[in-house]
């Protein structure tokens, strides 16, 4: 295929508006899969279980002498990084809107992502078979918000397949061919990559210039390494080997990349014969910043090494997570991981267990806070590496309050779409609980939202410490806005009471602010009672003596265990359950 016969397009939509269903229909129409198969592009177990798309997937389709490369994208706001990544490859998108729900927050966000990149947008109204479909009002929305005329909109039912073939023709007619040069040395960009247990890193690339085949020598720009290509192919949607990938094409490449960092998304691969200095690199893919951080530890400390490998490999497949080593007295060696949101975190945890068979403890997530240190050279030098502003990712790094001028917390700009009658409820919630997750549930799925980072704002932060019999257990400490401390203190103390078994002595659990020992909330766990009175009342007959001896030896063992562990015994599950969201 020459570039003029190629179209690279994506499908973007609000969650549940039918992307995966439409992708299935397009695959069937082009003969890539037999009819009736569902969710062909949702390959991950977690995607099928939750019915959401997490990873962008691709499929090479043939239609009327054209090669149409479909790049499927996730709809959930936590995975918008995946959307921008696939947009870097697309020259056009199908903007899918469900006829029964109309334009939603994610539709607007996706529209602007594509619009800013100058990508051709084809509006598609889906689910027109539903009784609740209101095509006219969706067309009005598309006209008012994005200036699409009703003639431009394609009306389909992805479920029944109605009008889906019109989409294929619209792609050929409206989406421009890729800007690619056939007659040039090979140059391409990695837009996605994953780790195959048998073959190492597999890079999904778009060929911008020249062509590539097995045996060619290539070089990477950022990592600056040279490889020999061992296989190239396309996704249909399964991997299918081919002899050559040409300019404008999307496909995969295997070349003995052994470490996970070599196939980083955004990397430029080029012919080893080209001069590195003359290579134009790709800047389309911006690094995304995590918004939520959480500690990740193996359940068994002996699993650390294997978990490390799993985390590294999963990160290759999901470059939007950030990983830094971490350690905890109670949980051993682990990592502090940055995620794009809480759903992203849950999916990461689920993928670790499903794809790598790892059992992990994911701690309570928290955002990144910052502190402006007082303008005092000696304090800054002595305690903060001379820095005026520090990042606080976990409570153990919380600075002494007397060193701090002000604390900062991250802000997000949230775009919400709510039916009028729900406005009161949503407004109330927003001002009350500083959180946006609950809104979706309360309004029974009618509301939608989208967010983007929006700088930092001063706030009063405190560190909430948990003391168990007067000793701080740092794993349970948290940083939070002062106004929320009292409620959180109560919850934590209650949860700990539920999790810590009675000991042979009294256990006092306190939640305090900073290094103060004044409790915001406090609870006492009474000691176990050992009542041998019945036995000692002289009723030694019928094996009584034997039972007494047994009890006494049990008690002794218990004592040894207590001594061995020093003070209070806390079961491992407590860390899981107390810290879990
Ligand atoms: P994410 O991958 O999570 O972003 O969702 P998605 O946009 O891929 O949605 P998906 O294709 O999974 O469809 C969501 C639901 O809508 C499924 O239950 C589909 O069967 C249903 N659906 C999709 N298209 C149609 C349609 O044209 N008509 C009707 N009635 N239902 C549809």
Automatic annotation (TrEMBL):
Protein name stated in the entry: Translation factor GUF1 homolog, mitochondrial
CDD domains: EF4_II, EF4_III, LepA
Family stated for the protein in its record: Belongs to the TRAFAC class translation factor GTPase superfamily. Classic translation factor GTPase family. LepA subfamily.
Compartments it resides in: Mitochondrion inner membrane
Keyword GTP-binding assigned: yes
Domain Tr-type G, chain residue ranges per copy: 4-179
Domain of life, per lineage: Eukaryota
One GO process term, biological-process aspect: translation
Gene3D superfamilies: 3.30.70.240, Elongation factor 4, C-terminal domain, Elongation Factor G (Translational Gtpase), domain 3, P-loop containing nucleotide triphosphate hydrolases, Translation factors
Record-linked SUPFAM superfamilies: EF-G C-terminal domain-like, P-loop containing nucleoside triphosphate hydrolases, Translation proteins
Gene Ontology MF terms: GTP binding; GTPase activity; mitochondrial ribosome binding
Binding site for GTP: 13-20, 72-76, 126-129
Provenance organism: Caenorhabditis tropicalis
Role description: Promotes mitochondrial protein synthesis. May act as a fidelity factor of the translation reaction, by catalyzing a one-codon backward translocation of tRNAs on improperly translocated ribosomes. Binds to mitochondrial ribosomes in a GTP-dependent manner.
GO CC term (a single one): mitochondrial inner membrane
Catalysis performed (reactions): GTP + H2O = GDP + phosphate + H(+)
Annotated membrane topology: Peripheral membrane protein
Alphabetical list of InterPro entries matching this protein: EF-4, EFG_III/V, EFTu-like_2, G_TR_CS, LepA_C_sf, LepA_CTD, P-loop_NTPase, Small_GTP-bd
Top class in the EC scheme: hydrolase
The protein's Enzyme Commission number: 3.6.5.n1
Keywords, ordered alphabetically: GTP-binding, Hydrolase, Membrane, Mitochondrion, Mitochondrion inner membrane, Nucleotide-binding, Protein biosynthesis
């Amino acid at each position: 295929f020459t570039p003029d016969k190629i179209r690279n397009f994506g499908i973007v939509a609000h969650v549940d508006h039918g992307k995966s269903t439409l992708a299935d229909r397009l695959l069937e129409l082009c003969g890539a899969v037999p009819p009736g198969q569902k969710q062909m592009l949702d390959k991950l177990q977690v995607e099928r279980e939750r019915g959401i798309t997490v990873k962008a997937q691709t499929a090479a389709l043939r239609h009327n002498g054209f090669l149409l490369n479909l790049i499927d994208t996730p709809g959930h706001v936590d995975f918008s990084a995946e959307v921008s990544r696939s947009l870097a490859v697309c020259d056009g998108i199908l903007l899918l809107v469900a006829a029964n729900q109309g334009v939603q927050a994610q539709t607007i966000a996706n529209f602007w992502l594509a619009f800013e990149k100058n990508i051709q947008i084809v509006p598609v109204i889906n689910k027109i078979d539903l009784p609740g479909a209101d095509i006219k009002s969706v067309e009005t929305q598309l006209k008012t918000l994005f200036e699409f005329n009703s003639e431009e909109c394609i009306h389909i039912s992805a479920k029944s397949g109605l009008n889906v073939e019109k989409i294929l023709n619209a792609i050929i007619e409206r989406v421009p061919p890729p800007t690619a040069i056939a007659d040039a040395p090979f140059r391409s960009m990695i837009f996605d990559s994953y780790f195959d247990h048998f073959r190492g890193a597999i890079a999904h690339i778009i060929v911008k210039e020249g062509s590539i085949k097995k045996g060619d020598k290539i070089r990477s720009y950022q990592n600056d390494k040279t490889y020999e290509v061992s296989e190239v192919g396309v996704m249909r949607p399964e991997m299918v080997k081919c002899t050559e990938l040409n300019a404008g094409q999307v496909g995969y490449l295997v070349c003995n990349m052994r470490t996970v960092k070599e196939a980083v998304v955004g990397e430029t691969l080029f012919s080893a014969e080209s001069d590195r200095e003359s290579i134009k690199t790709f800047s389309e893919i911006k690094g995304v910043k995590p918004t939520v951080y959480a500690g990740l530890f193996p359940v068994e400390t002996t699993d650390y090494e294997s978990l490390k490998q799993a985390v590294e490999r999963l990160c290759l497949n999901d470059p939007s997570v950030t990983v830094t080593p971490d350690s905890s007295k109670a949980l051993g060696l682990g990592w502090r991981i940055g995620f794009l949101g809480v759903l992203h975190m849950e999916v990461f945890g689920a993928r670790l267990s499903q794809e790598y068979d790892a059992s992990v403890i994911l701690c309570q997530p928290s955002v990144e806070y910052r502190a402006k240190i007082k303008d005092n050279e000696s304090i800054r030098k002595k305690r903060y590496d001379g820095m005026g502003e520090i990042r606080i990712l976990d409570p153990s790094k919380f600075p002494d309050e007397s060193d701090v001028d002000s604390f900062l917390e991250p802000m997000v700009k949230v775009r919400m779409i709510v039916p009028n009658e729900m406005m009161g409820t949503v407004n109330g919630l927003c001002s009350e609980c500083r959180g946006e997750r609950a809104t979706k549930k309360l309004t029974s799925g009618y509301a939608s939202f989208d967010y983007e980072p929006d700088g930092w704002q001063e706030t009063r932060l405190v560190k909430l410490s948990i003391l168990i019999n007067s000793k701080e257990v740092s794993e349970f400490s948290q940083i939070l806005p002062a106004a929320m401390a009292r409620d959180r203190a109560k919850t934590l103390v209650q949860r700990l009471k539920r999790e810590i078994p009675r000991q042979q002595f009294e256990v006092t659990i306190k939640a305090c602010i900073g290094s103060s020992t004044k409790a915001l909330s406090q609870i006492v766990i009474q000691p176990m009672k050992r009542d041998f009175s019945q036995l000692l009342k002289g009723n030694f007959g019928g094996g009584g003596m034997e039972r007494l001896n047994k009890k006494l030896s049990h008690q002794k063992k218990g004592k040894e265990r207590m001594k061995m562990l020093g003070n209070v015994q806390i079961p491992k599950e407590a860390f899981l359950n107390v810290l879990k969201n």
